[in-house]
Amino acid sequence: MSASSAPNPTDGTSLSTVLDLVSTARQEVLTTATGGSPWFGGTVTTAARRGAFPPHVRVRLLCTTPAEHARGEIIEAVRHGLRVKVTDRAIEESLLIDRRLALVPSGGDDAKSLLMVTTPTLISALADAFDPRWEEATPWEMTSARPDEFEQAILRCLVDGLTDEAVANRLGVSARTVRRYVNVLMARVGARSRFELGFRAAECGWLPADALD
Fold first, then answer.
1. Alpha-carbon torsion 56, 22, 125, 73, what sign?
2. What is the model's pLDDT at position 212?
3. 7 or 21, which is more confident?
4. Cα 169 → chain centroid
5. SS3 for the chain, per residue?
6. What percent of the chain is predicted at pLDDT more than 70?
7. What is the pTM of this model?
8. Rounded-to-integer distance, Cα 22 and Cα 195, Å
């Protein structure tokens, strides 16, 4: 069978079922989501925040500008390895697992019901639509201008002259996580070095004006 009904993931049990499907990924999860529906983007961010994906699984979320209440969840999921890009183009919601299984809205009277798709040609079409839109979309870190508290803590540590390892110990994360966030912050302000990042951060008002004195 090429398509079958999937549970309604707005229900607690159904959400668990969709999370179970997502957690079967062995290579990648590709998700497109609009701000109006919590199933796809919400399911993937929830899975990422719960550590459902092994480190080798690449998880990407392509979304329209998210509602304000969803931003905190996305920020937390990004910390757990979720890659997010934002597009201003109209997109259809979908969720692809290893390019072998997809969930899409059924289009029926029940706007919250999903179809599970396994037809290779349909899955290829969804993947072919995802890839170019992902390439042209804007990285999340470039759209969320002001750093959150965790990012500000990293900035303060760097200004204090701490090494990545010392920052990691202070904040209770890995040095790899610290380096990833430093790179994100540098990309957000166009800094070419950590030294320049400090000055750009102060210029943006992310740090006190006397932080670099």
1. negative
2. 56
3. 21
4. 25
5. CCEEEECCCCCHHHHHHHHHHHCCCCCEEEEEECCCCCCHHHHHHHHHHCCCCCCCCEEEEEECCCCHHHHHHHHHHHHCCCEEEECCCCCCCEEEECCCEEEEECCCCCCCCEEEECCHHHHHHHHHHHHHHHHHCEEHHHHCCCCCHHHHHHHHHHHCCCCHHHHHHHHCCCHHHHHHHHHHHHHHHCCCCHHHHHHHHHHCCCCCCCCCC
6. 79
7. 0.64
8. 40
pLDDT value at position 126? 93
pLDDT at site 99: 93
Tokens at 127, concatenated: 């993947």
Query: Which pLDDT band holds residue 145 (cuts at 50, 70, 90)?
Result: low
Two tokens, residue 62: 């392509």
